[in-house]
Each structure stands twice: as C-alpha cells, then as structure tokens.
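Per your request, structure below.
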C-alpha cells in the first residue's frame, strides 16, 4: 500500500512529528548533561523535516499528474 506524501493527512502527521522533535530538542537542551552529538543529529533531522513539510505544502512544488 502506498500513501501519497502530499495527502493532507500525511502532511498533518508530519507536522505533528515536527512538534514532537521540537519538544524533544527542548528537553535535551535543558538537561544538565547535554549530549551534543545527539542534539546536533536531532537539529539536522528537524531542519530536514521542516524543509520537507514546507516543500509538500508549497503548491508550486507539485508536479502535474
């Protein structure tokens, strides 16, 4: 089964994942023993995911079927 990535429900789910990562990085940043490599990996994933969500929401990025 294949779900199109530009499906509104999928984009909504991806936005939820962005919010989860935001909460996770805030939690990591507030810890006394900050795991810098983990925080950097999380920031990299956050940047990638937010750019993908923006691309999926941009109507000009969609190809004609």
């Amino acid at each position: 089964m294949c779900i199109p990535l530009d499906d509104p429900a999928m984009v909504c789910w991806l936005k939820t994942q962005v919010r989860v990562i935001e909460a996770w990085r805030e939690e990591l940043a507030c810890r006394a023993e900050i795991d810098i490599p983990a925080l950097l990996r999380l920031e990299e994933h956050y940047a990638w995911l937010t750019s993908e969500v923006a691309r999926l929401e941009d109507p000009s990025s969609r190809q004609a079927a």
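The two ends are 19 Å apart (CA to CA).

Regards,
D.
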